[in-house]
């Protein structure tokens, strides 16, 4: 009897202990959940602060860098006032925008009154803010820095605004040529921002400063308690000693009582405490959780048998469903294979075809029974036929090789013809057996499109070369004009001398030599033109200096006719060396005619850009500079001008085909240059632009060696 009673008491004790432990766990869980929700709310509060700070920083940065502020002159006061007026008009939360000099004197000020009216403050009403703490703090900021004042109440003429007007000031120094000339200060009405912040919280939110005074409180009698009469601290509200609040320090959070949590908050650089008081008290939620816990336990005990019975029934039903799924899976797999666009072949680790879809039969001209059970090499011609078994062994032993690797080759149809295909192989294991799934796509149409694209590309390149030849013919015609004029004058002199019986042999001989000299010059010019566009069958050794010199010699008269200068600079790989002595440093192997075509196009573009300049700008920016640099692996040729640069809206599209900004242009020049570089010369063509200084630079980087096409 005593033993049984002892067991009863032990059971009661353990039951009470379990209940107490459970209650304690539920209580702690309730507090943890509330704390987690509060921390989420605190993150939202912090986000609102950061969002406000980011937006207003952008605004004041724009103002401080605006010319009407940065270069402020008393004579420009109206322009600056208008700027501030427009800012207030577009930002209802702004109370005041001011420009203050380094002595604290307000130079320009525009206010928004309580009724929403925007007022420009006349000079007589401007104040000196040298003694205000925020002015002194903002004056300590370095160039580009932005400062925030404490979240406080607005004070005008030394008096506190009544009713209270929560205010935040943001300031940024103004620099002119490296010298601080003043600061821009924006005052914000913060009441609407506070109400918006409170709107997004599910708890009562209070803010206290580090001195223990309330800034925000649901009870109007306690908000801004520093300025209430008498002033009261948060410790008095919560019935704590002042030392208890000060003891919080920089802890992550602190429970002030059972229902209020204090979390440190950095608000625009001001250290505050954010206090969150849930609308539902912790103890109320605790009792609700306990009730839920008891109901769950009772329900679980009452229904513990039902799930067991249900599990047995579900297990039996699942077995039947699995059998049905296996049957349906076979049908589904067959339907799936036949519904895909690609031809699909499944083979085992020995290369034997296990399954195919209808697209395989259509693509290769076989029937199912002609492929199933055969080696996959039946559709793979040499040299891939002999290599395929090795690929399979490599993938089987190393679990890699063909996995997801796309391979393009010609496959063999049943009639012996070849078709281009793309093959992707996927490896899988079923019941310790290895299988490979090959996805095959017919590339016949794609190959035809590639052939047409290459044909069109060749035609475009040829047209571009013809256009370049036409421009160079204009240069040759220009160069021939002077020799022809000289020959005509010499012949006229000979005729006059003959008619006056004054034609001596020596004079005739001299005139003959002069005519032959002019003819030799013309012959040399046409030889240079003919060799300029010779198409090389293979890459040849050439010298970058010589290539540029040929272009310069042949094209310079055309440039001079438009009053455009061509300047050539040579470097040693590091730039800055204007010397062409080391000729061997610029030797490389390439297709010279295509390099000339690219450079001629770039020079022509620069010339046209210079021609489009205004006459007064053209005299100062009429030089095209070609800079050559050599490194161990490449030749770098830069073509630059100062004709205005390339705008951002154009820069992203200059290499697109048929994109042009010229009235009569077709937009193929730079596109063809890009194609020649990437597909013919294994080179890179880039550009840099500086619209501020009006500089455009195209950079052509050619490899030292180039394999024949």
Automatic annotation (TrEMBL):
<feature type="transmembrane region" description="Helical">
    <location>
        <begin position="291"/>
        <end position="310"/>
    </location>
</feature>
<feature type="domain" description="PAS">
    <location>
        <begin position="329"/>
        <end position="399"/>
    </location>
</feature>
<dbReference type="InterPro" id="IPR003594">
    <property type="entry name" value="HATPase_dom"/>
</dbReference>
<feature type="domain" description="Histidine kinase">
    <location>
        <begin position="475"/>
        <end position="706"/>
    </location>
</feature>
<keyword id="KW-1133">Transmembrane helix</keyword>
<dbReference type="GO" id="GO:0000155">
    <property type="term" value="F:phosphorelay sensor kinase activity"/>
</dbReference>
<dbReference type="Pfam" id="PF21623">
    <property type="entry name" value="HK_sensor_dom_bact"/>
</dbReference>
<dbReference type="InterPro" id="IPR029151">
    <property type="entry name" value="Sensor-like_sf"/>
</dbReference>
<keyword id="KW-0418">Kinase</keyword>
<dbReference type="InterPro" id="IPR035965">
    <property type="entry name" value="PAS-like_dom_sf"/>
</dbReference>
<keyword id="KW-0808">Transferase</keyword>
<dbReference type="InterPro" id="IPR005467">
    <property type="entry name" value="His_kinase_dom"/>
</dbReference>
<keyword id="KW-1003">Cell membrane</keyword>
<dbReference type="Pfam" id="PF13426">
    <property type="entry name" value="PAS_9"/>
</dbReference>
<dbReference type="Pfam" id="PF02518">
    <property type="entry name" value="HATPase_c"/>
</dbReference>
<dbReference type="GO" id="GO:0005524">
    <property type="term" value="F:ATP binding"/>
</dbReference>
<keyword id="KW-0902">Two-component regulatory system</keyword>
<keyword id="KW-0597">Phosphoprotein</keyword>
<keyword id="KW-0472">Membrane</keyword>
<dbReference type="InterPro" id="IPR004358">
    <property type="entry name" value="Sig_transdc_His_kin-like_C"/>
</dbReference>
<comment type="function">
    <text>Putative oxygen sensor; modulates the activity of FixJ, a transcriptional activator of nitrogen fixation fixK gene. FixL probably acts as a kinase that phosphorylates FixJ.</text>
</comment>
<feature type="transmembrane region" description="Helical">
    <location>
        <begin position="331"/>
        <end position="351"/>
    </location>
</feature>
<dbReference type="InterPro" id="IPR048760">
    <property type="entry name" value="VP0354-like_sensor_dom"/>
</dbReference>
<dbReference type="InterPro" id="IPR036890">
    <property type="entry name" value="HATPase_C_sf"/>
</dbReference>
<keyword id="KW-0547">Nucleotide-binding</keyword>
<keyword id="KW-0812">Transmembrane</keyword>
<protein>
    <recommendedName>
        <fullName>Sensor protein FixL</fullName>
        <ecNumber>2.7.13.3</ecNumber>
    </recommendedName>
</protein>
<keyword id="KW-0067">ATP-binding</keyword>
<dbReference type="InterPro" id="IPR000014">
    <property type="entry name" value="PAS"/>
</dbReference>
<dbReference type="InterPro" id="IPR003661">
    <property type="entry name" value="HisK_dim/P_dom"/>
</dbReference>
<dbReference type="InterPro" id="IPR036097">
    <property type="entry name" value="HisK_dim/P_sf"/>
</dbReference>
<dbReference type="GO" id="GO:0005886">
    <property type="term" value="C:plasma membrane"/>
</dbReference>
């Amino acid at each position: 009897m005593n033993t049984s009673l002892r067991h009863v008491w032990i059971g009661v004790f353990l039951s009470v202990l379990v209940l107490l432990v459970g209650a304690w766990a539920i209580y702690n869980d309730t507090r943890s959940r509330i704390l987690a929700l509060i921390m989420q709310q605190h993150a939202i509060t912090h986000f609102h602060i950061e969002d406000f700070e980011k937006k207003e920083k952008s605004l004041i940065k724009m103002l401080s860098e605006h010319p009407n502020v940065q270069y402020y002159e008393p004579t420009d006061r109206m322009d600056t006032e208008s700027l501030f007026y427009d800012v207030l008009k577009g930002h209802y939360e702004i109370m005041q925008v001011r420009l203050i000099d380094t002595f604290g004197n307000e130079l320009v000020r525009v206010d928004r009154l309580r009724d929403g009216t925007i007022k420009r403050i006349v000079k007589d009403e401007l104040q000196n803010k040298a003694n205000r703490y925020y002015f002194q703090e903002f004056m300590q900021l370095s160039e580009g820095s932005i400062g925030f004042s404490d979240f406080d109440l607005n004070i005008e003429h030394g008096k506190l605004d009544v009713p209270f007007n929560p205010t935040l000031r943001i300031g940024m120094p103004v620099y002119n040529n490296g010298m601080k000339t003043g600061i821009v200060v924006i005052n914000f009405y913060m009441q609407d921002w506070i109400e918006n912040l409170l709107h997004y919280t599910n708890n009562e939110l209070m803010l206290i400063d580090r001195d223990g005074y309330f800034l925000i409180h649901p009870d109007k009698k306690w908000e801004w308690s520093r300025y209430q009469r008498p002033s009261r601290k948060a410790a008095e509200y919560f019935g704590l000693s002042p030392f208890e609040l000060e003891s919080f320090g920089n802890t992550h959070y602190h429970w002030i009582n059972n229902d209020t949590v204090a979390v440190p908050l950095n608000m625009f650089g001001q250290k505050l405490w954010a206090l969150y008081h849930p609308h539902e008290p912790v103890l109320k939620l605790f009792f609700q959780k306990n009730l839920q816990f008891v109901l769950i336990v009772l329900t679980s005990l009452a229904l513990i048998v039902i799930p067991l019975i249900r599990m047995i029934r579900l297990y039996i039903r699942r077995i039947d469903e699995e059998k049905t799924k296996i049957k349906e899976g076979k049908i589904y797999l067959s339907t799936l294979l036949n519904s895909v666009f690609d031809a699909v072949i499944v083979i085992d680790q020995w290369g034997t075809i296990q399954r195919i879809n209808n697209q395989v039969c259509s693509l290769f001209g076989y029937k199912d029974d002609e492929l199933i059970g055969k080696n996959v090499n039946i559709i793979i011609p040499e040299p891939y036929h002999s290599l395929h078994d090795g690929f399979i062994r490599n993938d089987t032993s190393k679990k890699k090789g063909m996995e997801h690797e796309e391979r393009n080759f010609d496959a063999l149809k049943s009639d012996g013809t070849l078709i281009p295909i793309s093959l992707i192989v996927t490896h899988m294991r079923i019941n310790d057996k290895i299988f490979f799934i090959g996805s095959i796509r017919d590339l016949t149409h794609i190959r035809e499109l590639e052939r047409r694209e290459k044909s069109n590309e060749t035609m475009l390149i040829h047209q571009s070369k013809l256009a370049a030849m036409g421009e160079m013919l204009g240069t040759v015609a220009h160069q021939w004009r002077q020799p022809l004029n000289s020959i005509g004058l010499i012949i006229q002199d000979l005729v006059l001398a003959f008619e006056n019986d004054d034609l001596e042999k020596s004079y005739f001989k001299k005139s003959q030599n002069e005519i032959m000299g002019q003819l030799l010059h013309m012959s040399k010019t046409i030889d240079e033109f003919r060799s300029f566009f010779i198409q090389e069958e293979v890459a040849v050794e050439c010298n970058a200096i010589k290539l540029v010199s040929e272009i310069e010699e042949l094209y310079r008269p055309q440039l001079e006719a438009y009053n455009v200068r061509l300047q050539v600079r040579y470097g040693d790989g590091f730039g800055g060396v204007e010397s062409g002595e080391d000729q061997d440093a610029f030797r490389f192997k390439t297709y010279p005619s295509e390099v000339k075509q690219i450079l001629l196009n770039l020079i022509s573009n620069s010339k046209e850009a210079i021609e489009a300049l205004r006459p007064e700008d053209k005299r100062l920016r009429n030089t095209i500079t070609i800079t050559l640099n050599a490194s161990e692996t490449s030749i770098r040729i830069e073509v630059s001008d100062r004709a205005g640069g390339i705008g951002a809206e154009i820069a992203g599209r200059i290499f697109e085909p048929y994109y042009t900004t010229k009235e009569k242009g077709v937009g193929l020049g730079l596109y063809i240059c890009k194609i020649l570089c990437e597909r013919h010369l294994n080179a890179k063509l880039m550009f840099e632009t500086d619209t501020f200084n009006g500089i455009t630079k195209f950079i052509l980087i050619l490899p030292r060696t180039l394999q024949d096409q």
